[in-house]
Every structure is written in C-alpha cells, then in structure tokens.
C-alpha cells in the first residue's frame, strides 16, 4: 500500500546499487539536497579548541549529584576568522565511556521542557547540549554569530543577495552540532562509537542534516521534523515549501524558493533520510502534528529503506500501512513511532529513542 502511495505521489525510488557504489550514490543525493535546499555546508574549521569552565551551578540541585555539568566554550577559526560559542557537557559521574546525545535545543536551560536531563542521565547517557541561537539568531539577520562570519557583508542584511547555494541557518546550526562532536572526541568519558544527534522540529531538520553530513554519528534522531525534514514533500498534508520558504527563507539557501512550485522537485526528503544508511535513523511523529504530517514522515522512512536493504540491512520493519497511534516500529535500522498528542519533544519520545539506542549500541 505505501509503495503505491509513494508512486501516486510521484516520489522517485531509490534505485538499486551495489554496496561498493553506495559512497558515490550517497554523495549524489547529498549534493542535490545541499545545492537546492540547505546550501553548501560550511567548511570544517581551520582549528577548534575547547575551554572547559568550572562546574556549573545548575548541575547539582537538579541532578542530585549524579552528573557533572560543565559549560564549555568552543573556540573555532573558520576561513581565517574567529568564532566562539558555548555549550553544556552533562556527564554521569563515575568511570566509563558513556553513549551520548548532541542536543541542539530552543533554550540553554538544564533541564528544560524538552530536555528531561535527569532521566537521560539515569538511563546511562551523557548529553552535550546547546542553545541554537548562541550560534546565530533564528531570523533574517545574517550579520550575527556564525552567519556574520561566513556571509559576505552585502548579503548580511538582505538574504536574497546571498549566492543561490549559500548556506542557510539550518546548515549553520548543523556545523555547530559537529563541533560538539569534535569536543566529544577529546573527552575520554564519551563513547564516540555511540554518538547520537537529536533535535525537535526545526532542530529536528537540523539533526537530520547533521547526521547526513557527519558519519561519525551512529544514531540520527529527527523529532517532529516534518516539512523539509523527514517528511516526503510532494503532496503532503500541512506545511509545504511555499509556506516554509515564505516564513523561514533564512533556514535554507535561495535556490529552495523555486520549489514553491513542487512540480519542479527533482528530489525529496527520503533521499536525505537514505544518506544515513547503513547507520540508524529514528523518526518521531505525533498524531496531532498535522503541520509536520506523520504519514509523510512514515512514507519517507519507507522509501529510504531501500538504501538499507541494498546494503544487506533492515530498513523500516513495519506493516505495509500507516501507523496507528501508539505504535512503535523499532526493529530495523530505521525506527518510527507515532505518539498521541501534539508537536512536542516529550518524555515518551526520549524513552523511545533511549530504548532503541540501548538495544543497538556498537
Ligand atoms: C514552524 C515551521 C515548521 C517547524 C516549526 C518548529 O511551525 O513551519 O517547519 O518545524 O515551526 O520548528 O517549531
């Protein structure tokens, strides 16, 4: 049934390939999405160093002494210019190498409505968390933070003057996520073979792009990411490119606007999901989140599955129909769940993700 729906919606299948061809096929998908949607990613920094601040006052009252919580400043040099931003490293006390999340959030607070820090620690995970607007603001202003460093001056206050494939803000936040992973590589308490990147909504789109760009992430988690994230775009319910590129043109490159006419699309979001193969992709949907469209999220998992199957792995293991509320499909290398309720990153979602990771640790 789902393949039929994909066909009716005009979604291009992932064509069969040999495992030896995957790196180049993957690159091809990524290149299309970068050139037409998110923009050319920023280069790796010329250098990055980390300044660990003393233990943070926020750690002990909320976490009962079970974790240390440090502020860290990433000092980077990119294209010869300096750029620094803060993040928090919350790590269980005791010996060990902990699986961990890189979590880009809507506030710097620990804990926060989307960030049940103590429960995450109790599950044996560490978290590197950041407030996305510490990197650059969530608006048309390209003069501040990282945007101000990498955007030519004439385009900083008029985004339409950017090169058509110059990166939008999602690509910039994704770049910062990767720097948190650079930090993890320097901290012996963090297990680099079990790194997850997670985000909600616009930051779910960001998490997905981060995981597509950086294969060091074993788990890539897009919560309620929807349009221009993990949902098939063509003929979806709720939000469309014409909406998102009118309200949030600064998240994307200029090229993306032309796809307000979706009949012009030569790509769709299942291609981005496919670039995660053969690693683990986790998609979280909520039944009351029609703007994101849970069914189109499932469809892109289904369409992307082919990439895993060609690599001899299981993609989405699920019945050939849309999910019912409360269903979880965690058996393959793609996990999808449909929760009751609205657009939100809930404790239920975190538990689905943590249970999945615990079963699939390297
Ligand atoms: C808006 C936008 C969505 C986005 C969401 C969010 O609703 O249209 O695409 O996911 O904001 O980030 O909260």
Overview of this protein structure:
By secondary structure, this protein is α/β, with parallel strands linked by helices. The protein has a single domain, classed as 3-Layer(aba) Sandwich (Rossmann fold), CATH 3.40.50.1820. The chain is built from 11 helices and 10 strands. It has helices at 2-8, 22-38, 59-63, 117-122, 145-150, 169-186, 202-213, 241-247, 269-274, 294-310, 347-359, and strands spanning 47-55, 67-78, 81-92, 98-105, 126-131, 190-200, 219-223, 280-286, 328-329, 334-339. Strands 1-2-3-5-4-6-7-8-10-9 form a 10-stranded mixed sheet, sandwiched between helices. A hairpin with a 4-residue loop joins strand 9 (328-329) and strand 10. Helix 6 (169-186) packs across helix 7. The protein is globular. The mean pLDDT is 96. It binds alpha-D-glucopyranuronic acid.
Q: How many strands, which pairing sense, and closed or not: the largest β-sheet?
A: 10 strands, mixed
Ligand inventory reads: alpha-D-glucopyranuronic acid
Structural class: alpha/beta
Which regions are unreliable across 5 or more consecutive residues at pLDDT < 50?
none
Q: Could you name the CATH topology?
A: Rossmann fold
Rg, Cα atoms, Å: 19 Å
Assigned CATH class: Alpha Beta
| Overall mean pLDDT | 96
Our estimate of the beta-strand percent is 15-25%
